[in-house]
Amino acid sequence: MAEPVTTVSGLTKRFGDRAVLNGVDLSIERGEFVALLGRSGSGKSTLLRVLAGLDTEIEGKSEVDGTVSVAFQQPRLLPWRKVWRNIVLGLRRGGENRSRDRALAEQALSEVQLAEHADAWPLTLSGGEAQRVSLARALVREPDLLLLDEPFGALDALTRLAMHRLVEDLWRTHRPAVLLVTHDVDEALVLADRILVLGDGHIVARHLLDHPRPRAAADHADVRRRVLADLGVTESAPA
Ligand SMILES: Nc1ncnc2c1ncn2[C@@H]1O[C@H](COP(=O)(O)OP(=O)(O)OP(=O)(O)O)[C@@H](O)[C@H]1O
C-alpha cells in the first residue's frame, strides 16, 4: 500500500483575522511528484512554508515523515562562501569533516553538471547555474520531501526547459516526493504525477497525469483545459 510522506488535514493558517488557508487536506506519497497551482495570492507559498516547518502557527494537522528540503525562486546562496561550501552548509552533523563534505558537494555538483564550479564564488554564476547549485544544495540532504517554490520562474524559456529535464532526471535518480509550486500549467503537465489546484483557501481540484515520461504538455490537453478552467482562465479557441 502507498505510504504518505506528508499528511495535511484541516490545515488553517490565519494572518490576523484572515484565513489564507482554510481547511486544506492533502497527502503526498513517497516518491510522488505533485504540482501545486493556484492564482496569485491563493496561499501556495504559505502552504509550502508550513510543510517546511518554517511556520508553525497553524490550526489542523501538517505532518512530514522524514527530511524536507526547499528550493526557492531565488537561489539564496551566500555570496561570501564558495559554491561547494554553500552546498554543504545545511548538513548538520556532529564534528567537522571537510574532505567528506567536499566529496559530497562535488558529487552533488556533478549531478547538476557543475562539477567544475565547486570553487567558484556564487556571484560569478549565471541565473540558471545558481539555480542548479540551489537544487544540488537541496538534494545533498537526501530529502524524503523536496519542496520547490517556483524554482524556474525567474529563468528564460530555454533554460527553464533544460531545468525541467534536469529535475526529472534528479527525481528519477533520488526519488524524493516533490511538491512543485508553479504558475506554469505546461510545466506541471510535463513533470507531475498529479496536479492540485488551490483556491478559496483549500484544494479545489485534483488531476491525475498518467501519460508516460518524457512528456510534452500536449499529451495532457484534456487536463490542461480543466486546470485552466479551475484557475478561471479562459483559453481562446484554436483558429
Ligand atoms: N507574513 C504575512 N503576513 C500577512 N499576510 C501574509 C503573510 N504572508 C502571506 N500573506 C498573505 O497571504 C496570501 C497568500 O500569500 P502566498 O504568498 O502564500 O500566495 P501565493 O499563492 O504563493 O502567491 P504568488 O503566486 O503570487 O506567489 C497573500 O494575500 C499574502 O499577502
TrEMBL record:
Pfam families: ABC_tran (PF00005)
Top class in the EC scheme: hydrolase
Phosphoprotein keyword on record: no
Domain of life: Bacteria
E.C. number(s) listed in UniProt: 3.6.3.-
Record's keyword terms, sorted: ATP-binding, Cell membrane, Hydrolase, Membrane, Nucleotide-binding, Translocase, Transport
SUPFAM superfamilies: P-loop containing nucleoside triphosphate hydrolases
Gene3D superfamilies with a match to the protein in the record: P-loop containing nucleotide triphosphate hydrolases
Keyword match ATP-binding: yes
InterPro entries in the record: AAA+_ATPase, ABC_transporter-like_ATP-bd, ABC_transporter-like_CS, ABC_transporter_ATP-bind, P-loop_NTPase
GO molecular function: ATP binding; ATP hydrolysis activity
Domain ABC transporter: 6-225
Name of protein: Sulfonate transport system ATP-binding protein
